[in-house]
Amino acid sequence: MDALHKHRSLYKGTTPPWKETYRKRCVDRLKNSRFKLLDRYRQLGEDQPRSRVGGSIIVQEVMEEEWSALQSENHRLPSLWGPNGMAEMLSFAKEFDEVAVLEEIQQELMNQEISIIEEYERNQQFEQQYISSVVEGMGEVHVICPICHRNNLNINSYFISCICGLYINTKRQNITPDVLQHFLESRVSEHMENCLHNPVFTVTSNTESHPCLMISCKVCDFLSVVL
Questions:
Q1: Residue 104 has what pLDDT?
Q2: Secondary structure E strands in the chain
Q3: Bridge partners (DSSP) listed for residue 203
Q4: pTM over 0.70
Q5: What is the CA radius of gyration of the chain?
Q6: How far apart are CA 161 and CA 138, in angstroms?
């Protein structure tokens, strides 16, 4: 009996002792690889089907890297992946309980991967809806208030205001509806490049105690001056 079969026979019918450590490491690596996952997802393009080779984007890569790391710490663990990756391993040893454990972890990671992508798609939709609401609300070059999301802003050569209470002095800044719309869209897009959560707009005082429009996110600590 070779080392691989001998190792597996020890845990036949039981839960392998490495399961929980390996599962947790894989979950953590997938979460920490969120931007890498979304970058690859964007590279695939919208025309690509949701189900890819292996049913995932980076799950197999995550599992292989974490198994290699675990194996380097415990040399008694066998090499489970052959030249063709997980597919070869699964077809080679389906009779062993370890395969069922790996398949269980793989499915959990695939579900989390799908969850991350769906959250990204929802936030992309939010961004598009926000930009569309600005465009649709322009009429005669009007911009929807980013604070209340209901009223058109009053924009002139001296100030920007809204009946919800927003008021910003813009004298000598040459702010037009087109300029303000550009500022709002660019800040929203800048935040969405690195964070999946929705930002908020607030009015706060700058170092000279003058009101200014800010965009921020409590989740990723994004903070930027809009106006």
A1: 87
A2: 154-155, 159-161, 167-169, 200-205, 211-216, 223-225
A3: 213
A4: no
A5: 26
A6: 15
